[in-house]
Every structure is written in structure tokens, then in C-alpha cells.
């Protein structure tokens, strides 16, 4: 038997970024997270232990905004992968962190060929 526990749940931005990163990697067509260096104009693929560097979490107008910077696989439909990515991240944040009002923005930083 389960009972509701009263109280509040606080989730850190790093935790949200980690959840979003792992959800993103499960999506078909996503190679990995990316981080752009504005000074040099270079985008690099991040290793799996640094996923949160490719994800920004902020609060705008009372809602959480998650910016995900990804590298996609060559030949995939970018629109479909982006829609799937948004759906997956929203689902995992709702299920695990109990966050309902989340806006997910996908930034495609590059395409990786084999």
C-alpha cells in the first residue's frame, strides 16, 4: 500500500540536466551532446561523463526551460528527431522529477557522418 507523503520536492538544475542528457542519448539519431566555443567557432562532441555541459537549465516566466545542444547522425530527419527528443525529455522530467511545465529547446550543433 502506498501513501502520499506531504512536503515539497526540490530538484537541482544539475539533476535536471543529467536527466535530460540521459533521455536525449536514448533517442534515435542523437549521437551525443555538444558544446560550442563561441570564441573559436568550434563545436565539440562531449564525452558521456560531461553531458550536463551541453544542456542549459533556466527559469523563464515561471517555467523551466531546458536548452539541449546535440549532434545528430547523418541522414536522419532532423524535425522528427527533435520532436522525439522534446517528447522524451518532457516525459522523463515528468516521471522522475515531477516537473509538469517544462519547455525544451533543441539546438542542433552538428551532423556526424560515419
| Integer tally of domains | 1
Helix content: 25-40%
The CATH topology turns out to be Alpha-Beta Plaits
Radius of gyration, rounded?
Answer: 15 Å
User: How far apart are the first and last residues' alpha carbons, in Å?
Assistant: 51 Å
- The average pLDDT value, as a whole number, equals 89
Give the strand content: 35-45%
Q: Structural class of the secondary structure composition? A: alpha+beta
Second rung of CATH, namely the architecture: 2-Layer Sandwich
Q: Please give the number of β-strands.
A: 5
Describe this entry's structure for a reader:
With 114 residues, the protein is an alpha+beta fold. It has a single domain (13-112), classed as Cation efflux protein, cytoplasmic domain (Alpha-Beta Plaits, 2-Layer Sandwich), CATH 3.30.70. Helix content is 29%, strand content 35%. The protein has two helices and five strands. Strands 1, 2, 3, 4 and 5 form a five-stranded mixed β-sheet that branches. Helix 2 links the parallel strand 4 (63-73) and strand 5 (102-112). Helix 1 crosses helix 2. The chain starts with 12 loop residues before the first helix and ends with a strand. The mean pLDDT is 89.
Amino acid at each position: 500500500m502506498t501513501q502520499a507523503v506531504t512536503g515539497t520536492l526540490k530538484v537541482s538544475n544539475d539533476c535536471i540536466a543529467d536527466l535530460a542528457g540521459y533521455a536525449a542519448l536514448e533517442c534515435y539519431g542523437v549521437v551525443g551532446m555538444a558544446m560550442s566555443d563561441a570564441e573559436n567557432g568550434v563545436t565539440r562532441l562531449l564525452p558521456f561523463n560531461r553531458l550536463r555541459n551541453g544542456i542549459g537549465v533556466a527559469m523563464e516566466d515561471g517555467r523551466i526551460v531546458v536548452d539541449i545542444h546535440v549532434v545528430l547522425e547523418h541522414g536522419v530527419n532532423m524535425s522528427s528527431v527533435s520532436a522525439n527528443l522534446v517528447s522524451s525529455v518532457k516525459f522523463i522530467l515528468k516521471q522522475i522529477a515531477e516537473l509538469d511545465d517544462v519547455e525544451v529547446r533543441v539546438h542542433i550543433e552538428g551532423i556526424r557522418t560515419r
